[in-house]
Known about the structure:
The chain has three helices and eight strands, in the order βαβββββββαα.
Amino acid sequence: MRINLKQLKLHQEDAVYFDYKGSMDDRFLAGSGASIASPVEISLMVKRQNQVFYGSGALQTVIEYSCSRCLKLFTRPISLELSFIIAEAGNEDRYDEEVLLMEDDEADITAYIEGTIFTEIPLNPICDPSCKGLCPFCGGDKNIDECHCVNEEIDPRWEKLKKLNREGG
Ligand SMILES: [Zn+2]
Ligand SMILES: [Zn+2]
C-alpha cells in the first residue's frame, strides 16, 4: 500500500486523500491464529506541515479468530484509528517518534497498517464471554452438549482423609 505525496510535496494540494478497499495479505497474522475475513477499507488524509507529512484516518475490516476455549471459528469487525508521520528518507533521525519514510515521493504504509491491526488481536480470543469451552476428558464442546464426564483423578487430599477415616473407625 503506497501513498503518492508528490502533489503535497510540490504544494499543489493542502492535503491528499487515500482510499482503499480490497483484500490484504494477512500472512503477518499467521502466528496469532487470526485472519482477515473481509475486504479491508482504509480512508486516509495526509497533510503537510513544513517538511513533515501527517497521516490520519480509519481502517475497517473483519477478523476471524479461533476461540481459545472451544476452538470454534468466529468473526468480529474491527475499526481502527490511524495516525502516523511520514518523513523524507534521510531526515528520519530528526524525529523522536517512529516515522514512515518517503522515497521517490511515495510512502509505503503496509508495515504500519499490519502493525496496527496486529496490536488489535487479543492473545486469547473468546467467542463469547460465557463460552464453556471443551471438556478436558471427552473433548466435547460443552456449549453444544453438556457431557457427564467426572474427574477420574482423585485429589490426593481426599485419599488421605479416607485413610484417616478407615483408621479412626
Ligand atoms: Zn468458544
Ligand atoms: Zn466430557
